[in-house]
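STRUCTURE REQUEST FORM
Protein name: UvrABC system protein C
Source organism: Methanospirillum purgamenti
Requested output: structure tokens
Priority: standard
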Amino acid sequence: MDLTTIPEEPGCYQFKDETGTILYVGKAKNLKKRVSSYFQKKSITPRIDILVSLIKDIDVIVTSSEVEALILENNLIKKYQPKFNIDLKDAKSYAFIQISNDPFPRIGIARDKTSKKNGTLYGPFVSAAERDQILKFIKQTFHLRTCKKMTKRACLRSHLGTCAAPCTGKISEPEYQYLVKSADYLLKGKNQDLITDLQKEMETFAASEEYEKALVTRDRIAAIENLSERQYVQRQKKSDEHIVNYLVSGDTVYLILFHVERGSLTSKEEYVFPETEDFLDEFILQYYSSTKPPNELILPSPPGSGMEEYLTHLRKTHVTLTIPKQGEKKHLLDLAYKNLEVSFFTGKMRLAELGEALYMDPPPEVIECFDISHLMGTGTVASMVSFREGRPDKRNYRRYKIKTAGPSDDYAAMAEVVKRRYSRLLRENSPMPDLIVVDGGPGQLKSAHTILEELSLPIPIISIAKREEEIFIPGRNTPLSMQKKSPASLLIQEIRDEAHRFAITYQKKLRQKSMKE
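Status: completed
Returned output:
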């Protein structure tokens, strides 16, 4: 996988060797930033150097949050046991939050699923900070006790007002169980149901002029609304699921399949094939002719009649086909679609939007970008990078020593390098790019555009100014109305940044060479 196509989103990455064996599994809040850090020239450790030397392929799975990425990382490590993870990662199960089954239940932490006989388990929580934050929130909001053994003396938490203190008889068992029920709703992710119940309770207190209780309930509602973290990747289930989603572009189907084993997302598979009228049915028939069907198959649209019976026949036990419209299964379906876009369409989607913004039909396939670099007016150099279908085409990168432009004259330097590049392509009768990008504002753009007119080359050209990431076109002094966080603008920024990096690298190389001489 090309590093430039890795998304800047949370998820897991898998480094693979030339045989496809997984060497290492990691998680990241920003996949692109984290994965790219491994390939910087500066050595980190000998162990990492060895790992990087063996990497031949990179696979990523995007998640909706860093918490989901942590859970998925744990699942993948336990499943594949990558050799570079063994000494670096603890593949044990993560801790649960437990509410005991006592008359006045206590809330605490349990690390063993066998603890289920002593109460209800919630989780697992892969992040200790996340677990502790939620536990602290519940204790402060619902005042459940945490003591292992109830006494008849009030503890410090009781004096601080963070425990309902059933040990002192301050609260009845039904009243305490109501608080337990509220905590249960929260831990199961039923936040909206809990808020609805609390709003009714607050209205009741207000109607009976119990304003202090109404204020307490209001504060609980506000706190719950601010707590928004649900875990979808790992759920307490005994059955296995497959999630299939697809995207049709032109005459081609791009399909992804997620494996969910006992509630845990463990892996994905990707397929590309020509579109037919019944492509979904054909895929299901062919795939499960050699793979055991899961307990449940989650799809974005219903297959042909009889498919459920057919899969049940293959599995020998009942197979359920589900087409979810909401809830966590719909979330997993959407997550699969998101990964599909990342795997196949990140570059194409950005190019399509760029083409629309620039009124180019079809969208530009080959983009070349120029950048000028110098050190306080000395040692001026230029770079030209080429992107094909939204990805770097490093074989066609070029670098130039500026020969005719004066010190600090970026306009003349831009004109020189553009003239040298496209005069040569004309002499060699080589293909021209679909779009040219120059780093700078209207001044640099005018210099480059003038050269193209002199060469009679009607190639679309734009410039991007660093400060506000504004994009200019010839003959217009104001920038295009393009959001700088839009996919099209981000693509141009990425190409410009690559040209800048390439120019800086060349300038440093020449400076070091000059110092040695």
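Reviewer notes: Residues 327-357 form the longest helix (31 residues). Residues 87-93, 228-236 have pLDDT under 50 and may be disordered.
Form closed.
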